[in-house]
Design goal:
Residues 1-27 are annotated as: Disordered. Residues 1-15 have a biased composition (Basic and acidic residues). By secondary structure, the chain is of the alpha+beta class. It has a domain at 58-108 and 116-123. The chain contains 4 helices and 3 strands. The chain has helices at residues 4-13, 32-49, 81-88, 94-104; strands at 65-70, 76-80, 120-123. The protein has a 3-stranded antiparallel sheet with strand order 2-1-3. Strand 1 (65-70) and strand 2 form a beta hairpin.
Length: 125
């Protein structure tokens, strides 16, 4: 492995400019570009935070019949989109609605909160 001086000499011989700045260390201030990128990401997160329900919403689904099955008990629950919108509202998230449909009629109860309930699998109809 060449030493730093040997690498600088090799870079000079190839006609490349030697980096005059040393890399950032833990005690150095972060560059402005770093903070600007962080703030831009935060603005995106704030814009998405206004949407409290998971994607997709019921009003965005193209299917007329929505079907969800359980990985655990292999039960299938179907509901028409019109009924789901009437019960839960058009802005409700499909995954949230599916969990509610399965949990309200779950047949596998263990008594432990972590294990109770169905495990939804979203089926295309």
């Amino acid at each position: 492995m060449p030493t730093p001086k040997q690498m600088e000499k090799l870079a000079r011989s190839m006609g490349r400019e030697i980096a005059s700045q040393r890399p950032f260390g833990p005690s150095d201030d972060m560059p402005d570009e770093y903070w600007r990128a962080l703030l831009d990401d935060a603005q995106v997160l704030i814009a998405d935070a206004g949407r409290s329900s998971p994607r997709p919403r019921l009003c965005e689904l193209p299917q007329h019949v929505l079907r969800v099955s359980c990985h655990r008990c292999e039960r299938i629950v179907e509901i028409q989109k019109v009924d789901a919108v009437r019960l839960y509202g058009p802005q409700a998230g499909w995954k949230e609605v599916a969990r509610r449909l399965l949990d309200s009629t779950c047949q596998n109860r263990t008594g432990r909160h972590e294990e109770d309930g169905c495990w939804p699998a979203f089926c295309p109809v």
